[in-house]
Amino acid sequence: MSGGRAVGGTGLVQLVGAGPGELGLLTVRGLRAIEAAEVIVADRLGARAVLDQLETERGRPLDAEIVDVGKQPGHHAVPQEGIIALLVELGRAGRRVVRLKGGDPYVFGRGGEELAACRAAGVDVEVVPGITSAISVPAVAGIPLTHRGLATAFTVATGHDQIAELGGGRDHTVVLLMGVGTLANSATTLARGERGAGCPVAIVEDGYGEGQRVTIGTLGTIAAQAARRGVRSPAVVVVGDVVRLSPYAPAELAVDGHAVAVAHDPFVPRSAPHDPAASPGAPSEKGTR
Which of 32, 93, 164, 224 is 20–30 Å from 54 (CA)? Predict the structure, then answer.
């Protein structure tokens, strides 16, 4: 290995994370890889939006050939096996290839599978990390995944599995990707544990996109709210007390992040105990744009 690149093949395949679909959040290394590519094998979410924005900014099409292998819910035009075969074929043919993936290639992006397949086929391959939507999309709604006095850890999972095994309380943030279709089941399952039905929840739809919208409720109400508002993918679901820091949180749920942090700073004297995690009131929902 040299700089993350495996030596042996004639071409080069770069697995590039496109981030959440905002050109400004693409890494410099990712941008350079795209500009140097001969072929770009692109996903739908995040990746396609970045390419469109880049071409608009340049005022002309990219030099690379673009192969769209984007997947939609319930419909995979090109199966994963076909994508891997294409990468290997292009790499063996000596092409410089960018496999452009939304978010980060190693966060539910099957990047590990593609890297292993290229290496097994003798194709040079490297990974260019991207900004995962698990962190960036909550941030656009003003939600940090950790915050002094509210949360010291977080877990990222899909809405398809592992929900029943997620422990912890409201101070352990849970981020669900691809979780809209199974939202009702996930909310019910998480509410049975230590978090309870009153645990705050936020859904951020189409983060950084034209349809960006935020819906805030609790584990006990969020499924009904999502159904009423017609919440759709792509969306990121955040569960935990950090949701209360969002500027879109209603007054009865909201909390002052600075006050919470100060109250839990061991170097700041205080005269009375402070409980930032008091039971929230009725849930609300708000949107952007």
Answer: 93
| Segment among 19-28, 69-78, 244-253 with least mean pLDDT | 69-78
Give strand pairing partners of 174: 155, 239
Active site residues per annotation: 43, 71, 178
Cβ atoms of 133 and 20 within 8 Å: the answer is: yes
Whether pLDDT at 154 is above 90: yes
Pairing of strands 96-101, 124-128: unpaired
16-46 burial string, b = 16+ CB within 10 Å, else e?
A: bbbbbbbbebbbeebeebbeebbbbbbbbbb
Question: Based on the number of CB atoms within 10 Å of its own CB, is 78 exposed (0-12), middle (13-18) or buried (19 or more)?
Answer: middle
Largest interatomic CA distance in the chain? 71
Angle between helices 47-58 and 28-36 (to 10 degrees): 70
Place of tokens 């820091």: 245
Q: Which of 122, 153, 140, 163 is nearest to 247 (CA)?
A: 140
Residue with tokens 């990047």: 111
Q: For residue 187, give the H/E element and its range.
A: helix 183-191
Query: How many alpha carbons lie under 13 Å from residue 6 in its C-beta half-sphere?
Result: 19
pLDDT tens digits, one per residue of 53-100: 999 999 999 999 999 998 665 555 789 999 999 999 999 999 999 999
Q: Assess contact for 199 and 190: CB atoms under 8 A.
A: yes
Residue 36, SS3? Answer: helix
Integer Cα distance of 130 and 268 in angstroms = 38
- Give SS3 for 202: strand
Q: Tell me the per-residue pLDDT of 203-242, one tens digit each, with 9 for 90 and over.
A: 999 999 999 999 999 999 999 999 999 999 999 999 999 9
The residue written with tokens 């109250």 in the block is 263
